[in-house]
Design brief:
Layout: H1 4-25, H2 29-35, H3 40-68, H4 70-90, H5 97-112, H6 115-125, H7 131-157, H8 162-182, H9 189-197, H10 205-214, H11 219-249, H12 256-304, H13 311-317, H14 324-327, H15 332-360, H16 366-394, H17 397-413, H18 418-428
Helix pairs in contact: 1-6, 1-7, 1-8, 3-4, 3-5, 3-6, 3-11, 3-16, 4-5, 4-8, 6-16, 7-8, 7-12, 7-15, 11-12, 11-15, 11-16, 11-17, 12-15, 12-17, 16-17
């Protein structure tokens, strides 16, 4: 039987390649929309369309992986992503390009519903006390893809508009072959067969969703709400990030990749080198609160960060201590700090919340509730980009201030969570 560490490494490689393909195309979407004469609302809708498909399919992937295994669900999802990349590659050359951009996002979102499957895969393969660290390593691999994907997207765009999409599709096909060859099943198929036989006793996704709504004070429900609100707030901000940088700092499609690479590198280093030590020292509950605080501060700071209107006048006002050419770059320092707090905050928040959720739900419903978590997160990813797109058109700071306030709310929702998580950690020590 494959060891848990080897299985984790294979999952990390699979997730890394998948994210490289995804980030080859995502940074280009806002600029494709602008080239078609569209604005912030359509960009928000393009982002949300992915989440709509993910929202619909995530519980299905969770149930499928619980009943038939994690491996087949993951392979089918990767196949959907490959199809989506081909559509993206030719979207601008087809008669109705905006329609095909939306179509590629919907197909890609359907494949993206397997996020819950990968999380359940990790939970199957690791001990409860190691899950936050394992999920952090998995996130580090995906964020390495965030750092590399935009660079490859820019390079392959030199081959024409179809270049990034077709190259991403080729990567995805290679990823399918790799996962088929090296990734073993993690699900206890004996338990899965028993679960399928007890259809009447097995919780359905809509029952689980209803339970989260009607029993919002339960620990699993609160964790799902925390994940959904924080994810929606973060996703809403990132959906507007390209437009924000373009509007305030003149960033273009040729330079936007540097920002994704910058955040990706920070996220990889944090999750690979720091997260595990922080979990061991502070625990998942306290660390998730710290992460939410960093995330809220970074988002709020972006609302107030702007270029200096008259660099020459500012340089003169400080007695020529700095030349005007250097003063121009001063606002980029607080911008760099604010943007850096986003990957730091998410690195400490989301792996810890998901690990806590895996501890408070039974093993035979792990895939289901991981899927429900993605359903609620997907709902937030549908709503927030659209709302934030409208707010962005009204006043640029509004979406950032709303997002920061909602992240602060999640800290309040997580109060007292130590009671449900700490006993298991103590028992294993």
């Amino acid at each position: 039987m494959m060891s848990s560490s080897r299985k984790l490494w294979i999952l990390m490689i699979t997730a890394f390649i998948d994210m490289v393909g995804l980030l080859m195309v995502i940074p280009l979407l806002p600029f494709y929309a602008k080239s078609l004469g569209q604005g912030g609302l359509v960009v928000g809708l393009l982002v949300s369309s992915f989440a709509v498909a993910q929202l619909i399919t995530a519980p299905m992937w969770g149930r499928m992986s619980d009943a038939y295994g994690r491996r087949p669900a993951l392979l089918v999802g990767l196949g959907a992503s490959a199809i989506a990349y081909v559509i993206f590659g030719y979207a601008l050359r087809l008669p109705h390009p905006l329609f095909f951009l939306f179509l590629c996002r919907l197909v890609q979102g359907a494949g993206g519903g397997t996020v819950s499957v990968i999380q359940a895969y990790v939970a199957d393969a690791t001990a409860p006390e190691d899950r936050a660290k394992a999920l952090g390593w998995l996130s580090a691999a995906t964020n390495a893809g965030v750092a590399i994907g935009p660079v490859l997207g820019s390079l392959t765009h030199a081959w024409g508009p179809q270049g990034p999409g077709l190259f991403a599709a080729a990567l995805c096909v290679g990823n399918i072959i790799f996962a088929w060859r090296y990734l073993d099943e993690s699900r206890d198929m004996g338990e899965a067969a028993k679960s399928k036989a007890e259809v009447g006793k097995r919780a359905r996704s809509r029952d689980a969703i209803a339970h989260v709504v009607t029993h919002s004070g339960a620990p699993a429900s609160r964790l799902i709400w925390i994940y959904a609100i924080a994810m929606g707030a973060f996703q809403g901000v990132t959906s507007m990030l390209a437009l924000y940088l373009s509007t305030r700092f003149g960033v273009t499609e040729r330079t936007i990749g540097f920002f994704f690479t910058y955040t990706g590198v920070i996220s990889v280093l944090t999750r690979a080198l720091i997260l595990g030590k922080m979990v061991d020292r502070y625990g998942e509950v306290r660390l998730s609160r710290f992460g939410s605080t960093l995330l809220a501060c970074g988002i709020a700071a972006m609302a107030f960060t702007r270029p200096i209107a008259d660099p020459a006048h500012f340089a003169a006002s400080i007695g020529g201590f700095l030349p005007a050419s250097a003063v121009v770059f001063l606002p980029y320092l607080p911008l760099a700090l604010a943007v850096a707090l986003l990957p730091l905050g998410t690195a400490f928040t989301f792996p810890c919340v998901t690990a806590m959720l895996s501890k408070v739900i039974p093993n035979n419903e792990r895939g289901l509730y991981m899927g429900v978590q993605q359903t609620f997160g997907g709902s937030a990813r549908v709503i927030f980009p659209i709302v934030f797109g409208v707010l962005f058109d009204v006043a640029l700071p509004l979406p950032f201030l709303l997002s920061a306030s909602l992240v602060v709310l999640t800290i309040y929702l997580g109060r007292g969570m130590e009671v449900y998580v700490k006993p298991k950690a103590v028992a294993m020590s």
